[in-house]
Amino acid sequence: MRGIGPVVASEQKATQQLSTIQRFLQYFHPYRREIPIALTLVLLGATNQAIGPFFLGWSIDQLIAQGNLKGLVQMLILLGLVYLTGMWAIRGQILRVGSIMQRLLAQLRQDIFIKIQSLPLSFFDQSEAGDLMSRLLNDVSTVNQAFGQTVAQMLGNFFSLIGIVIAMLLINLQLGLLSNLAIPLMIFTTGLFARWARVRFRVTRKTIGELSARLEEDIGSVREAQAFNRIQLNIEEFSQLNAANRDANVQAVAITAAFLPSIDFLNTLATAGVLAYGGYLAVTGAATVGVVTSFLLYVQQFFRPIQILSQFYTQAQSAFAGLERIFYLLDEPVRLQDAPDAIEMPPMKGDVVFEHVTFGYTTNQQVLKNVNLRAQPGQMVALVGPTGAGKSSIINLILRFYDVTGGAVKIDGIDIRHVTQASLRKQIGIVLQDNLLFTGTVAENIAFGSSHATQVEIEAAAQAANVHEFITSLPQGYSTQLGERGAPLSQGQRQLISIARAVLINPRILILDEATSSIDTRTEALVQAAIARLLVGRTSFVIAHRLSTVTQADQVLVVQQGAIVEQGTHAELMAQQGVYANLYSIQLGQVSAQTDPTPKP
Question: Which domain of life does the protein's organism represent (predicted)?
């Protein structure tokens, strides 16, 4: 019974690889009309390679041995035409097959990107951006190296091998059988090395993904690494991952390095066999010199396709390992999908209701427990409470970044699971504590959610967000190019541009997640004024850690451990002398202590 486990595992791996190949072949379907043309060119090139040695051997026996100079000249002209035709066919097949492969790989990249964009946030909670980038770039690049450049050559050599085998058996059955004795040995050798290579290349694909993930993380946090003096530790940890990737690649290369000399040895052995036995047949008169010459040429051509096919097979193991990772990502279920009968969200009034909502990011832990709330159109609702209480989860459910595990979230009486996600989010604006700006112009960043906005509309949004004067002071104004994450703008300037972005989409529901933190006092005044202008007539949800910013809210919801423990206006909650009043008093005391110059014991 001990041997059953490895056998089952081997069968599972074989089934998995077969499934990967079948899945990859589906990408050839759009090119089904072009493939026959490419195969015709491949067959033409292979035929030309197969008949060349036959004509040479025949010329030795029938023309050179007979002293037929005229016939020899004619044969040379014929051979020239044959090889020119073969050269044209090979060029055509490389262009045709190369074009098909590059378009196929472009579609594969497109599918990966579309999949990544459509996956729910719960997937990214458990995935690393660097590993996803590795699948999109490194794994597809590996497939390109294995198939994109060599598949035409591989097909040509495959058909050439078939033609050469047939030609050898027709010319001389005994020598043909002797030459073909090497094929079983080569198949066994290739299968053995490919099995080892497949395991090694899977490790290389895994380690390069881990390395890319760590690199992306370390580059994004280089400021924090320098501030906390972690540079040397980061270097050491990266070196360990880099060494693991190096060792995996060295082991894969070692397998390839042992494989190619093995094929060369079989090539030499077969050539020696043909030379010895063919020479014996020629001496005894059982074969002509031309036949032996043709066979020596065929043997050289015979092993060249096998070498290329065998080398391609080992390289393909790395590509299949990459394809397994790619298809694993493409098969990742999109758990948050529009219902088949989902409708477009009508123009919102802004009436938001949570009915007995429960929610958890995992099945083992609930983040929200029986939450009930209602925000009437135009109301400002403040969410306060300690970190991890569930405030951001409430916001995420309104945007339907996640689905509730119990209860319902309704807007204007419609369960948001019954409308399309795009039509829902189109009418909701969001301003975060640390808004992300993208590489591009200032105008492009403002119009991020409204790609068809005119310049007049963009400038009007900027004026409403109190950022127009600053933008016009930039070297190229609205055409000023920003770097990664909005560099070199300050935090406050990025915040004002993000507010202009929200103004431009004119949302009916607005979400503010600590939008005035981490900025200086002067900029905060501009941001507060822009937000006050933005809030007019809109339902808004404000997450605030500084309670002084929510005293004018129509409702204040105190969230603790996933439940709303208090609800009311600022004055009502202060009068209750409960959790909110305690939090407010503590913050007010801290502010007083910071502004009071009197020394405290």
Answer: Bacteria
506: helix, strand or coil: coil
CA dihedral sign, ordered 324, 325, 330, 331: positive
At 558, the amino acid letter reads V
CA 249 vs CA 220, 221, 296, 356, 561: distances in Å: 27, 28, 37, 54, 48
pTM of the model: 0.64
How is domain 365-427+545-595 classified at the architecture level of CATH?
A: 3-Layer(aba) Sandwich (3.40)
Distance between CA atoms of 402 and 360, rounded to whole angstroms? 9
The DSSP code sequence of 438-505 is -SEEHHHHHTTT-TT--HHHHHHHHHHTT-HHHHHTSTTGGGPEE-GGGTTS-HHHHHHHHHHHHHHH
Domain spans of the chain, in order of start: 26-330, 365-427+545-595
Distance, first Cα to last Cα, the chain = 77
Give the tens place of pLDDT for each residue, 505-526: 888 898 888 765 555 566 667 7
DSSP run (H or E) holding 569? none
Torsion angle (degrees, nearest 10) of CA 475, 478, 480, 481? 170
* 3-class state of residue 542 by DSSP: strand
Check if the beta carbon of residue 514 is closer than 8 Å to that of residue 455: no
Single out the residue of 455, 407, 449 nearest to residue 425, CA to CA: 449
**Beta-strand relationship, 428-431 and 509-513:** parallel
- With CA atoms as reference, report the closest residue to 55 among 228, 297, 255: 297
Tens digits of residue pLDDT in 454-510: 999 998 888 888 888 888 988 888 888 887 767 788 878 888 888 888 888 888 898
| CATH numeric code, 26-330 | 1.20.1560.10
Closest CA to 390 of 515, 516, 547, 558: 558
